[in-house]
């Protein structure tokens, strides 16, 4: 054996695991180009702190990657991109960052296990991993990069944990097998087109804390039927739910922001409006958020204004109020006891340009939330009057009972001691409670 051949063999032995010859031991640096096809299994040595950019890119026969417990912190850009034979990977807890395109185009990657310690998943880290079935982000992950799971067509389950702060644009773009997702309360903003064309996505749960849903975030999610927005949401980007062809129910929990507090405090009449149109316009990006959806109305919770008051009424009076809600136009008592108000959606159209006017079709430009004819305002006004009437009636009974008790003595029968509240006193009670004028017709007819 000549000296050059002997040197080459010694170099190879330094990189090869002596106990398992078939496993290539990576200890840093570059790997000889001719070994690209030969390596099928690799072990990352304990002293390696970073796997550099493109180290194992397009190693098409690589089926297994082992990580020794050690110093590894970063898996660099495109480190394992195009490793089409790789079927599973477990990222050790020492790793804090997956670089851009780290596992891009690993078309047979089925399982990925991410451990606590990971903080950042870089842009396009797993895009086009078309066989990936499930992924759980540990609570230490704060940033999910743009396009990170782009077109992972078989991704069915995604678990996003509290601690995640940023979901960047197109993170789950066209993950067509994804069925449900829960957005943690620590996420304040969803990037644009995050779940665009997730055609099997049928359930989305938003945590309280989310403020902005980006442009096109759920556009073309054709299986989505019901969406409930937390009270913290202030903005839906343009086309956020465009062409969600089965979306039939939207509930806004933040009634305090969308509804006129002056109205709900009984300082405005039922003709002066309940909906804060300027706030709703900002929320829906001037009507484009629900374009192309079959929605006919949006529900806004008014529970914060009425539910606690209803709950304090005696059982019989509470049943009476609840029955009345069921008969009032555009009000709904939902199974959990909350009360929601319905507001119709009004569509705006613009005629599409065409050479032949007879073939032109009206193009839907926007969908606006409105209280047409103030019908919702009138129903809410009637409900507020009814609750106030029962509250005042209950207060009157208690005061009359107290007056009756104060007149009881040994020489008079209890029946003779009962005293009704004088009209002026009742008026003072109404004034004190803010009911003057508001309840007068109800009292006159009582």
TrEMBL record:
InterPro entries named in the record: LRR_5, LRR_dom_sf, Surface_bspA-like
Record's protein name: Leucine-rich repeat domain-containing protein
Pfam families in UniProt: LRR_5 (PF13306)
